[in-house]
Specification:
This protein is an alpha/beta fold. It contains ten helices and 13 strands. α7 packs across α8. The longest helix has 23 residues. Bound molecules: acetyl coenzyme *A (ACO).
C-alpha cells in the first residue's frame, strides 16, 4: 500500500503561559471548574500571528531535512495571518525557498484541518523523492471573546509541523463534513469577530464522530484497536477523549493527551501532539497510529498510518 512516511516533526507553542487561576477574578470561573469540565490546566497565548508560529514550527521540523526536496507546503489554519498571501507562502519565504518549485496553500477545515491536509499531501506528492511540509497553526486568542467564560478558557495558540514523503506502508483515511454552521461559528463580521460555540452540542457531535471515524478506518484497514499503538485525537476536552476510549473499550494509555498544557489549539493540536510524542521518544518506526480531527464546518476525519 502507498502511504505517507513522517520524516520529522516540530512544534512551537505560544510564548505566554496562562493558567486557569489567571482567569479567576477576570471572569466568573475557577481552576476547579475548568479542570473537572475540560482537563485543561494551562494554555499558551502568542502576540504573534499564526504565520509566525507556523514558521517557527516549520524551522524545527526541517532542521535535518534536505530543503531542496520540498515540493509542497500546506498550512491548516482557521486563523491565517492574511487572506493572501497564505501562511504556507510566508513559510516558503521564511525558509528561503522562493526560487524552488513548490505548491503552497492554506486549508481551512477548522480543527480537522491537519487531518485533511495529510490526505491532500498524500494525493499531491508525485514521487518518493518529494517532501511535503504539513503544518497546523493557530492564533485562536485573536478570535476568542475574553468576556465569554464558556469559550475563552478552552483555547490556546501554537503550531505543529511535519515533513512527510510517500512511502510503502499503511495509510487508510476517512474524511467527511456536514455543512452546518451551528454549533460552532467564527465569522469575519467586524461587529462580532468572535468564536461562538454551543458547548454541549459540540460535545455530542465530537464523541459521535470520533468513535465513527476510528471505527471507519479500522474497518477499512481490516484491523482492530488492539493492532494500533496510539490514537491522537484533536485535543479539545479530556472528557471527550475519556468518553471515546471507554466507548471503544480501550485504555487511556493508547490515547495521547497534552491538552492540560496547551488547551484546544484547533488545527495545530494534532501536529503539536505528534511532535511532542516524537520528542519524548514514544513513536517508533513501524508503529500504527490513528489521528482523528473534528471541528467547525462541521468537519471530521481520521487517518490510520504507520510511523
Ligand atoms: N467557569 C464556570 N462556569 C462556567 C464556565 C466557566 N469557564 N463556562 C460555563 N460555565 C457554566 C455555564 O454558564 C452553566 O451555568 P448555568 O448552569 O448557571 O447556566 C454551567 O457552567 C454548565 O454549562 P455547560 O455548558 O452545560 O457545561 P458543560 O459541562 O457542557 O461544559 C464545555 C462546557 C467545557 C464547553 C463542554 O460543553 C465542552 O467541552 N464541549 C465541547 C467543546 C469542544 O470540544 N469544542 C471544540 C471543538 S471544535 C474546535 O475545536 C474549534
Amino acid at each position: 500500500m502507498e502511504g505517507l512516511k513522517i520524516l520529522s516533526t516540530g512544534y512551537y507553542p505560544g510564548e505566554k503561559v496562562v493558567t486557569n487561576t489567571d482567569f479567576e477574578g477576570k471572569i466568573d470561573t475557577s481552576d476547579e471548574w475548568i479542570t473537572t469540565r475540560t482537563g485543561i490546566k494551562r494554555r499558551h497565548f502568542s502576540s504573534h500571528s499564526s504565520a509566525y508560529l507556523a514558521i517557527e514550527a516549520a524551522r524545527q521540523a526541517v532542521r535535518d531535512i534536505d530543503l531542496s526536496k520540498i515540493s509542497l507546503i500546506i498550512c491548516a489554519t482557521m486563523t491565517p495571518e492574511n487572506a493572501t498571501p497564505s501562511n504556507a507562502c510566508l513559510v516558503q519565504e521564511a525558509l528561503g525557498l522562493q526560487e524552488q518549485s513548490i505548491m503552497c496553500f492554506d486549508v481551512n477545515a477548522a480543527c480537522s484541518g491537519f487531518v485533511y491536509a495529510l490526505e491532500i499531501a498524500k494525493s499531491l506528492l508525485v514521487n518518493k523523492d518529494q517532501y511535503a511540509l504539513v503544518i497546523g497553526s493557530e492564533q485562536l486568542s485573536r478570535i476568542v471573546d475574553f468576556t465569554d467564560r464558556s469559550t475563552c478558557i478552552l483555547f490556546g495558540d501554537g503550531a505543529g509541523a511535519v515533513v512527510a514523503k510517500k512511502a510503502d506502508g499503511l495509510f487508510v483515511s476517512y474524511n467527511d463534513a456536514s455543512g452546518t454552521a451551528l454549533p460552532l461559528v467564527a465569522s469575519f463580521e467586524k461587529d462580532d469577530p468572535y468564536l461562538h460555540m454551543q458547548g454541549q452540542e459540540v460535545f455530542k457531535f465530537a464523541t459521535k464522530v470520533i468513535v465513527k471515524s476510528i471505527n471507519e478506518v479500522l474497518q477499512r484497514a481490516q484491523m482492530t484497536l488492539d493492532d494500533v499503538d496510539y490514537v491522537v485525537c484533536h485535543q479539545a476536552n479530556l472528557r471527550i477523549i475519556q468518553y471515546v476510549y471507554k466507548k471503544l473499550k480501550s485504555s487511556p494509555d493508547k490515547f495521547f493527551t497534552n491538552l492540560d498544557e496547551y488547551g484546544n489549539t484547533s488545527a495545530a493540536s494534532i501536529p503539536m501532539a505528534l511532535a511532542e510524542m516524537n520528542e519524548k521518544g514514544l513513536l517508533k518506526e513501524g508503529m500504527k497510529i490513528i489521528v482523528v480531527g473534528f471541528g467547525g464546518g462541521l468537519t471530521w476525519g481520521a487517518t490510520l498510518m504507520e510511523w
